[in-house]
């Protein structure tokens, strides 16, 4: 008899590619070596086999970077809608194993909130994922605030995921090393800088004052922000500045995931700063294989109660996922 696992495993930052969106993307592709590309294109046998081998019960699927954030405004809404419809077909074909985050047509800001609502209400998606900057514009720009307003009404999170940094940033910070270390401006460091900046800008913008119940997800163990939380909060609340309680807003409006950062030290820091209720399990498949993530959290030195929260309980609560095990 097969031994029953201690914990159901729901992984919530697991990527795929849509062929129509990929055809419009002409940017850098340094992360997509053939084995990764094969897995990004697979929404069936290979993906499910590797989930089974590692003990992953469910993936919450999301379109890989750059998502739909670099599409031309005139075509963004239609292509995004078609992309979400195709993903919905995949979910319907295997609802016990897959759920989804919607893509949003942020290049057309007026269309994005309506597509979020359609994806949640009509397709059953669990929120949305946005990748990096939208054609060079940060997400705190007021053109995008209706997305947060709608997300608050729908009570779903927006997952903010990195994409390749702005060309000006690459040229200023990384260009001397890109040829020898092509992942330096991406997962090696650039993603952390981009997403940490994106999150801080959201707090400073006042969007959480306008929409105090908005829920934001950050991957990769919070992009380093839990480790820097005290320093950022102290600096932004100094006398002479317009005081901002960064800690208060970060701990209220943000959740983080373990995607691609299986560090005991980083996890313990995040638990101390945010609490285990704010951390959700993710792998970042296929950029990271499934087994290291599952094995790491299974064996890390935290309580079984906290492991259960991170492996599945927090995802079921935040994303309103109902599985056979949770019914």
What would your notes on this structure say?
- The structure is a single chain.
- This protein is α/β, with parallel strands linked by helices.
- It has helices at 19-24, 34-40, 45-54, 73-93, 112-121, 145-154, 167-178, 190-205, 207-210, 225-236, 246-253, 264-274, 290-299, 304-318, and strands at residues 10-16, 58-63, 98-100, 102-103, 128-131, 158-161, 216-218, 254-257, 279-280.
- Helix 3 packs parallel to helix 13 (290-299) and helix 5 (112-121) packs parallel to helix 6.
- The protein is globular and about 55 Å long.
- The model has no long low-confidence stretch (mean pLDDT 93).
- The strands form 2 sheets. The chain has a 6-stranded parallel sheet. A 3-stranded parallel sheet has the order 1-2-3.
Summarize this entry quickly:
With 327 residues, this protein is an alpha/beta fold. 46% of the residues lie in helices and 11% in strands.
Summarize the topology.
Blueprint lengths: L9 E7 L2 H6 L9 H7 L4 H10 L3 E6 L9 H21 L4 E3 L1 E2 L8 H10 L6 E4 L13 H10 L3 E4 L5 H12 L11 H16 L1 H4 L5 E3 L6 H12 L9 H8 E4 L6 H11 L4 E2 L9 H10 L4 H15 L9
Parallel strand pairs: 1-2, 2-3, 4-5, 5-6, 6-7, 7-8, 8-9
How many structural domains does the protein architecture include?
1
Topology-level CATH name: TIM Barrel
Q: What's the CATH H-level homologous superfamily? A: Metal-dependent hydrolases
Read across the widest sheet, the strand sequence of neighbours is 4-5-6-7-8-9
Give, in order, the helices and strands.
EHHHEHEEHEHEHHHEHHEHEHH
Mean pLDDT: 93
- The shape is globular
Number of helices, where a helix is a run of at least 4 consecutive DSSP H or I residues: 14
N- and C-termini, Cα separation: 24 Å
Structural class: alpha/beta
Beta-strand fraction estimate: 5-15%
Per CATH, the architecture is: Alpha-Beta Barrel
């Amino acid at each position: 008899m097969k031994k029953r696992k201690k914990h159901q495993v729901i992984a919530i930052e697991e990527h795929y590619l849509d062929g129509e969106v990929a055809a419009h993307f002409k940017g850098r592709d340094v992360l997509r070596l053939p084995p990764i590309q094969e897995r990004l294109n697979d929404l069936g046998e290979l993906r499910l086999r590797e989930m089974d081998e590692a003990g992953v019960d469910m993936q919450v699927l999301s379109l890989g970077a750059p998502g739909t954030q670099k599409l031309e405004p005139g075509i963004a809404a239609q292509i995004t809608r078609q992309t979400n419809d195709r993903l919905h077909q995949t979910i319907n074909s295997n609802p016990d194993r897959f759920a989804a985050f919607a893509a949003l047509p942020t290049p057309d800001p007026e269309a994005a909130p309506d597509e979020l609502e359609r994806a949640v209400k009509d397709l059953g998606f669990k929120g949305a994922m946005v990748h990096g900057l939208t054609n060079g514009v940060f997400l705190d720009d007021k053109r995008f605030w209706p997305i947060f307003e709608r997300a608050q009404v729908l009570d779903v999170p927006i997952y903010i995921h990195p994409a390749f940094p702005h060309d000006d940033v690459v040229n200023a910070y990384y260009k001397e090393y890109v040829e020898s270390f092509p992942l330096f401006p991406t997962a090696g460091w650039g993603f952390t800088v981009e997403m940490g900046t994106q999150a801080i800008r959201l707090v400073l913008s006042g969007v959480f004052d306008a929409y105090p119940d908005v829920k934001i997800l950050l991957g990769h163990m919070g992009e380093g922000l839990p480790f820097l939380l005290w320093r950022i909060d102290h600096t932004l609340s100094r006398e002479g500045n317009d005081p901002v309680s960064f800690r208060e807003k970060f701990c209220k409006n943000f959740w983080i995931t373990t995607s691609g950062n299986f560090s005991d030290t980083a996890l313990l820091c995040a638990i101390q700063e945010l609490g285990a209720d704010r951390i959700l399990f993710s792998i970042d498949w296929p950029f990271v294989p499934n087994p290291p993530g599952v094995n790491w959290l299974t064996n890390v030195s935290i309580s079984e109660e906290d492991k259960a929260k991170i492996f599945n309980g927090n995802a079921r609560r935040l994303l309103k996922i109902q599985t056979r095990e949770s019914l």
